[in-house]
Amino acid sequence: MDDTARPPATMLTVRGRRLATLVRPGAGPPVVWLGGFRSDMRATKAEALDRWAARQGRAFVRFDYTGHGESDGAFAACTISDWLADAEGVVAALAPERPILVGSSMGGWIALLAAARVRPSGLVLIAPATDFTEALMWAQFPEAIRRQVMEDGVWQRESQYAPEPTPVTRALIEDGRRHLMLDRPIDPGCPVHILQGMADPDVPWAHAMRLVERLPETGVVVTLIKEGDHRLSGPADLDRLVAAVEGIAPRTA
Predict the structure, then answer these.
(1) Is 200 designated active site?
(2) What pLDDT digit, counting tens, does each position of 111-157 carry?
(3) 121 carries an active-site annotation
(4) Catalytic residue among 105, 193, 207, 237
(5) Is 105 in the active site?
C-alpha cells in the first residue's frame, strides 16, 4: 500500500500499554485479525481482509501486539501471556459482540487461547502455530542453543522474514509452557476453518494435524494447500482466506 494512502492508527491503552489499532466500522459480528510472531496489522493478509470488509460493509478490527508494528513496548520483553492479554483487551474494547477471530501463525494459538474468555462466533486459523514455543522452538533446538537461552536469557535467531535476528528469550519459553494446549482436547465453542500449506517450513502441516486431532469431531474444516508456504499470501491464498471468513461470516443483507 502507498504510504500516502495508509490510514493512521489509533492508540488504545490496554493494561497500561499503548496498542496501535485500525478499526473499520460495519455490520455483522466484527472480524478481528490476530497477527503472527513479529508480524504486524498491515501485512498482506490483513490488508486483503480489510478490502473484503470494505466491499461487504463488515466490521473489521486489527491491531499490533506490544512490541510489534506501531505499538509501544519492546518485543524481547514480551511473552505469550502479554500478547494474549493484548488480544483479549482489544476484543473487549473494540469487538465485544462475539467476534470472528482470524489468527495467523502465532495468532492462531492466541485465538484458541482467547476463545474461552472471548467466546468467538468462529475461528479462521492460518498455519496455526499452537504451542510453538515448546513444539516448534524448544523441542527443535540443539543442546547448545538451549543452554544459551537458559544461561544468557536470550538467543538471537536468524530470520528469513526480517533483516535483524529474532530474540528468543528464556521468559518466552518458560511462559509458553503455561499455555500449552496440544496435550488435551480443545473446544473453542464455535466453527473452525484451518488453512495450512503443506510446504510450510515453519509450521509443518503435520503440526496443524495435531491441532485438528484435539478439536471437536464436528464444525472443523481443514484446507490443505500442497504447494503452500508459511505466508499463504499469494492471490489464490488470499482468495481462500476471504472464502473461509465468508463461510463463517456470511454476507450481510
Answers:
(1) yes
(2) 999 999 999 999 999 999 999 999 999 999 999 999 999 999 999 99
(3) no
(4) 105
(5) yes
